[in-house]
C-alpha cells in the first residue's frame, strides 16, 4: 500500500533509498508504564489536553503542544492533518487506515483510467506488472522515485477529452496524439529515451503544439533535463502555445529534480542537492508567480517554491513555518508546514545528541565553515552540551524552533537557556521548559514554583508544570509539601484516564512515602504495553501448558498492575533483606506481586546465606518450590535455583520472569547473567524523576547497599551454582540429588543467556562454562551411567 505523497515527500522519494531490514528474532523491550514516544490519548492531545509532556515525544506532538501552550488551538482541519500516532490496538488506527486507503484509491484513479484508455489502442508495449509511475536509478537500482505522478496522468486524460471533442473520437489526429502520449509515459519506469514521432507536416497546429510538449515531457521523464529545459523554455516563450504556462512550471520542476539527482545521495542523505541549480529553480518559480499562466496554478508554484526555499533559504523559511504553525490563526497549509518544519529539523539535527535518548556511541559529525569534519564521540554529557551549542544558529531561526530544541535537550546549557528565556518572556511555554529542567538548587527555582502554582488545572500546561513543581519539592527535601501536592493532583488525574500521567505522579508520590506500608500501597502500577521478554516467557509457558503432558507452575493470568522501574530499582539496589521480607509479608501488595517478591527475596537469602530470612520467606513460596527447596540454604536450595530458570535475585520492570519460574524460555532469558544490575535503558523515561525513597533510614540504606554489592560479586548463575554443585557431587556421590544436579549444570550451560557480540571477558566465561559442562558430564557418565538424568543429559554434552 502506498501512502499519500505530498510535494515534499514526493521529492524525498527521489533521493532516499528504500531499505528493508530483516529481523532474526523477536525484538523485546521493557514493559511500558509511561509512554515516552507519544501522548497517552492522541485524540485528546490534539484537542489540547496535553497531559504530561516529555522531551522524547515526536516533534510533531511538541509543535502541536506549543500552539496550545501559547493559547492557540487546532481547528478540525488541522487536527485531521496532524495525524497523531495510535497503536494497533486502538480503534482510531482502523479509521486512519481507511482514510489512507481512500487517499491511495484516489491517487491510483488517474493511472487506472489511463491504462483503461490505452488498452483499446495500439500503443507502445510495456512489460506486464511495470509500475508506470516509479523509476529506479543509481548503482543496482538503489534509488526509486515517483517519476510520473498522478497529476501527469490527470492532465493527459483531460487533454484526451478536449482533443476528442475537437478532432473526434475516431480521428487520425486523436490516434496520433494518443500514441505520442503513451510513448511519453513509456519513459516513466526508465530504460532509455523513447520519443514520440514528429507530428505530421500536414497535421493541425494544435497537434504540433501538443507534440512539442510531449517531446519535452519525454526528455524530462527520461532524465534528459538539459534538453527538456531547452524545449520547455521554447514552449514557454511561445504565446500561441496552449502549453505555455505548464511548460514554464515544468521547466522549474526540471531544475529541482536535476538539483537532487545530479548529486550523489549515498546512505540516504536527504539534504544532498546542487545548490546552484536549486537557487536557479527558486528564481524561475518567483518569476512564474508574476505571470498569469494557464495550467500552472499559483498554489502549485508556491508549493514548489516552498520546497526549494527550505533548502536555499532555510532560516527564513523555518521562521515562516514556525509563525504559521504557532498560531493563533488557523493555518490552511498546516499538514505541509508541519511536515516541512520537521524535515528541516531532522535534516539538521539527526546526527546530533539533541534528545536524552540519542545514540552517541559513534562518530559525531561537525559542520565547520561549510565543510564536514569528524572526531570521536565524546562522553554523553559533553555530546549533549556540544549538540546544543551546534544548533544555536538553527534555534535562532524561530521562537518555536528555539523552544522545541531547548525542551528536547538534556544539556545543562539548555537548562540555563530555558530559565533565562522564561525570566525574559514570562510565557507559559518557557515556564514549562524551564521548570522541567530546573534543579532544586537553582536560584530561580522558587520563582518557577510560584509561577507554576498559579497555573490553572484547566491549562494545557497544568500536568507538566505541576509534576515538576512536585519534583522540585521532593528534591528540596520538602516531603510533606510534595505529598500534599501530589495527593491533590492525583485526585484530579484519576478521572482523566491518562495512565502515563497517573503512573508518573504516583511514582513520584511513592518516593515520598511516609513509611514502608504507604510505599507498598503505591507500588502497583498499571502496565500500558507489555513487550518484555519476561512477558514472552510467561505467555510461552501458558501456551506450552496446553499440552497436558507439560506441567509448569506458570501464572495463568498476568495482573494489570506490576512493579514499575522505580519500584524494581528500590527492591533491587536499595532494600536490605529485612525490608524485602517485611514487604513480602505485607498485605499491602497484591498476591501476584507478593509471591514474585517472595521468590526474589528467597533467592537472595539463599545466595547471601541468610537462614533467618529463608525461614520467614519459605511459607510465602509456591508449594512446588517449598517441596523442592526444603528449609535452609544448603545444597537443596542451590539445586532449586539451578532447577528453576526463572528464579533470580532481582525483579524486572513490569512482568516478572519468575511468573514462569520453572520454565526454560526459547530465547535464553534463563537464570541470571553478569550485569543484571544495569537497567535495560540508562533512563527509561527521560525527563522524569529518578531518586531514592525518603522513608529509608541511613542504616537500612547502608545495609541494602552492602548486600547489593555482595550479590553483584556472585556473578553469573552458571559460574556460581555450577562449581558448588560439582564440588558437592565429588564429595557426596551417594546423595540421591547429585545426578539431577549434574544434569542441571549441563542444562544451565546450554540454555543460559549469552551475548552474540562477546567481549574477551564473555569469551573467557564461556570457556569456563564449557569446561564445567565437560566436568559435570564426566561425573554423570562415569558414576551414574544408568541414571535417567544421564540419558536426558546426552544432548547437552559428550558421553
Show the helix and strand layout:
Layout (H helix, E strand, L loop, with lengths): L6 H7 L28 H5 L12 H11 L6 H7 L8 H28 L15 E4 L5 E4 L3 H18 L4 H14 L19 H18 L2 H12 L7 H18 L13 H15 L8 H15 L1 H13 L7 H16 L14 E5 L2 E5 L4 H11 L1 H4 L3 H10 L3 H14 L2 H10 L7 H9 L8 H14 L3 H15 L5 H13 L4 H7 L1 E3 L6 H12 L16 E3 L1 H10 L2 H9 L5 H18 L2 H7 L5 H7 L5 H9 L54 H17 L2 H15 L6 H14 L8 H24 L4 H6 L6
Antiparallel strand pairs: 1-2, 3-4, 5-6
Helix pairs in contact: 5-6, 6-7, 7-8, 8-9, 9-10, 10-11, 11-12, 12-13, 13-14, 18-19, 19-20, 19-21, 20-21, 21-22, 21-23, 22-23, 23-24, 27-28, 28-29, 31-33, 33-34, 33-35, 34-35
Entry summary:
The protein is mainly alpha-helical. It has 36 helices and six strands. Helix 11 runs antiparallel to helix 12 (298-312), helix 12 crosses helix 13 and helix 21 (462-475) runs antiparallel to helix 22 (479-493).
Shape: globular
Average pLDDT level: 86
Fraction of residues in β-strands = under 5%
Strand order in space, largest sheet: 1-2
Indicate the percent of residues in helices.
55-70%
Total strands? 6
Terminal CA distance: 56 Å
- The number of helices is 36
Q: How many strands, which pairing sense, and closed or not: the largest β-sheet? A: 2 strands, antiparallel
Structural class: mainly alpha
- Estimated radius of gyration: 34 Å
Query: Unreliable stretches, pLDDT < 50, 5 or more residues?
Result: 1-24, 266-270, 361-377
